[in-house]
Each structure stands twice: as structure tokens, then as C-alpha cells.
Write a structure and sequence with these properties.
By secondary structure, the protein is α+β, with helices and mostly antiparallel strands. Helix content is 34%, strand content 25%. It has helices spanning 12-18, 32-37, 73-78, 80-85, 87-94, 99-104, 107-113, 120-126, 140-143, 210-218, 222-226, 243-262, and strands at 5-7, 23-26, 45-48, 58-61, 64-68, 130-133, 137-139, 144-146, 149-150, 158-163, 168-175, 182-191, 194-200, 207-208.
Amino acid sequence: MYEFEYQRPTNRVAAKTAATGDTRYLAGGQSLIQAMRLRLSQSARLVDLGAVADLKGIKAENGGVTIGAMATHAFVASNADVKRLIPALAELASGIGDPMVRNMGTIGGSIANADPAACYPAAVLALGATIHTDQRTIKADAFFTGLYETALLPGELITAVSFPAAAKAAYVKFKQPASRFALVGVFVAQTPGGIRVAVTGAKSSVFRATAIEAALANAFTAAAAKSVKMPTDDINSDLHGSAEYRAAMISVIASRAVSAALAR
């Protein structure tokens, strides 16, 4: 690990003041610290957001939920409002990593990191969430831009994520057994704006499966989702599965997600 300066502010103003020059926000450390230990990432200063209390809350509003960026996965999974209004989101959070990861990792840290196999990006994209920062709001469709890349500007701080409720929604992932990251994960949602299907683990970034969305718009059934043959363009291929395998699994996992949504 390279040498760095560490600061732990207690409010947003102090956090922003500290974030000058080559600074990274620390929002749980489940990914960033490991990358720094392996010298895959380097920053002159880390600003730990763990003591900023007003970034941790969850509240029901406008028919959905707004989740503070520093809310842990465990808190999201157990929160009564999330379980009542968007149970699929609570279930997704309950399946991230292991208990240590769920009690330390945060939603803001996860989406800012934009791991191509992370679970939260699928929920953000499928539910059409809005990301709130200290500077602006960003719609889900414009947030994830590539491999570990987002629309965030240098020093921009995620403060919360607002999720609208969906008529029906579910997330299913085919996970890598050791890491529990998704080899293929699919979040299906019937939203006020139509059917949205987001896929994680299959490409360099989360993406919407528009072909499956079109099929489900005609018939919201597991069979309709499974009938779609996904192209292998840009699909990941590695020791865990070929591009052809992952492409085929997208439709299979999407069909399981539809079945889970219909069973609610």
C-alpha cells in the first residue's frame, strides 16, 4: 500500500473542504482498501465518510425510498420502508457478499465504484433511480459510463439515491461461489415508465437488456424473457464462463427474475 493522508470529518462541509487535490472518498472500504493494498489504486488523501451521520438515513418519500449514500447493505436489507415499498431492493442487499461486507459496505460506495459485477448498479438502472450529489442529480441511465467509470466529477460526493417503487420487481443472480459477485445478475422491474431490465456481471458495465424489455412489454412472463436470444457482442469471457454461456444465461436468469416478481 502506498502512503496516504487520512481524514475523518463529521459533516458534509468538512468532507468537501478536505477533498482537495488527489483525494478519494472512503465509503466503507470493501473495494477501495483492497485495491490500495494490492497497489492497484493510489490516492494522496482518503476522506472517510463513516462519521457523517446525515449520509446514513433512509426515508420513504414520493411513493419510493431515498437512501443515504452511507447506508450499509445490512441496513438497506433490514429497513422496514425498503422492505415494504421495494422488497426486491431489500432482498438484493441481503445477498451482497458476506455479513462483514454487508455491515461495512455502503450503497454510495458500491455505485461510485461501479464494479461490473456488483449488484446495486442493476437495481439503480432497472428501477430508474436518481443519484443525488452535492452538486446535482443524475438519472440512472446517465450514471454508469464504463468499466469502473461513472458520470461523477472529481471531488463530487454522492449524498443519496432515490428509488421509485415498482409495480413488480425482482433481482436474481447467478453468483460466483467464492465472492458472491454476479457472473450474471438480472433485475426486472415494471415501472411507471415501462418494463426495465438491467444486467450486471455480463459486460464491462451494467446495461439494459432492451430486447428482453421489448419481449416483456408484450407479455410479462418467464417464457417471454427466456425466448430472447441475447447477442454475444461485448459479453465477458473468462475462466468462469464464455461469452456464449453468459449471453444464454442472461435470458435464463431474466426468466427467473420474472417468475420471482410475479410470485410476490
